[in-house]
Amino acid sequence: MATAQALRLVVVTPERTQLDETVESLRFPLYDGEIGILPGRLPLIGRLGVGELVATLPGGQTTRLFIDGGFVQVNRGVVTLLTARALPPESISLESARQQLDVALAKKARSPVELSMKDAETQRARKMVAIARQN
Amino acid sequence: MAKARAIVKRLKAVRNIRKITRTMELVATAKFKKAMDRASEAAAYTRKLAEIVADLSSAAARQGTTELTHPLLQQRPQIRKSILLVLNSNRGLCGGYNASVLRTAQATLAENRAAGIATSLEVSGKRGINFFRFQKQDMTDRYTHFEDQPQFDEVDLLATRYAELFVRGEIDQLQVVYTKFISAARQVPVCETLLPIASLEPGAGSTSPAVEYEYLPSPAEILEELVPASFKARLFKCFLDAAVSEQIARRVAMKSATENADEMIRSLRMTYNRARQSQITSELSEIIGGAAALE
């Protein structure tokens, strides 16, 4: 794959295409942990987790986005992230993230389905708090 | 004299109305443009989703797991309870937009009643709410917060609730009545069954040369996750379509209203001129008559 030197990152939410840029490398959370992608990556389809997408631009700066689940497709040097929400980290306030965490923790789970939903929510809120803290 | 003045008054009123309808037409055009842009941007998501689904299902077929068994795909043998979501607008003055959606909704309601399906009605938009209130139909839920730019987060809440109800077996069907946007010149009111999901693949997807993907986790597991995502995207598309169609309907209605006002102004002006003319003529003849009498 000598030709695939450029890596294009496309972040799509149901509302719009949030980001469409050429990047040097990027990393983002999959369902079971983080993955890093460099140019020349073999085709991949995967399930996203909740967390932070960090993309390194050709100039060396980084772009960060909070992503909330979804899917990723890597094909021919194009990385497409489909996610329900993609927020710039500046837009997440520590206070509201903490509030969400409290709400999620206070939820009562009575069935396995509710329990897994509660887990997912607390995990999301924890990630948001962690990202907000970095600001 | 009195007649001419009355006509002037009417002329003024019509001119005012024309100003208003003309402004509303312009506003609707701008809003339509915005809504259209949003809808076409949102299409990227659906398109990509369909692409992944196509890739995944071919991969799943290769692995031998052909049948998907997601609860949202499950067709119930007997439909007992159903939710009918009607998407209307909050504002009127948009021609037949609301009425045609409501007509379709009424027909669906009657069908469901005939089939013995208990249908709970959920209505979005003040127009629809008022209509069903007048019809003395019970509504389980009313929404008025969906304007011309529906947000995904808001639709997401609804979609999650419907999916939960469906999975728990409290409903067997979700129908949505809305105006489908086909092209800028054609929008039709339709009733679509969103749950259970009929098929994931929207028609013949682009059959690009098969790529050997690495799947994390397995194709089947990703597909499981894709099902709710695609349901949400579909429901969101309904809302977007409805918003775009509303603006088009309003623009068309206001355009014809403006044209009608123009025509009315023209005919009123002619009548006024005639009245004025005949007034002058009669005054002249009076003066001449008076002068002749003095001689």
Describe the structure.
The complex is a heterodimer of chains A (about 140) and B (about 300). With about 140 residues, chain A is of the alpha+beta class. Helices cover about 25% and strands about 45% of the residues of chain A. Chain A contains two helices and eight strands. In chain A, a hairpin with a 5-residue loop joins strand 5 (about 45-55) and strand 6. In chain A, helix 1 runs antiparallel to helix 2 (about 110-135). Chain A is globular, with a radius of gyration of 16 Å. The mean pLDDT of chain A is about 85. Chain B is an alpha/beta fold. Chain B has two domains: about 1-30 and about 255-290, Orthogonal Bundle (Helix Hairpins), CATH 1.10.287; about 30-250, 3-Layer(aba) Sandwich (Pyruvate Kinase, Chain: A, domain 1), CATH 3.40.1380. A five-stranded mixed β-sheet of chain B has the order 3-2-1-4-5. In chain B, helix 2 links the parallel strand 1 and strand 2. Chain B starts with a helix and ends with a helix. The interface of A and B includes residues 17, 30, 70, 75 and 80 of A.
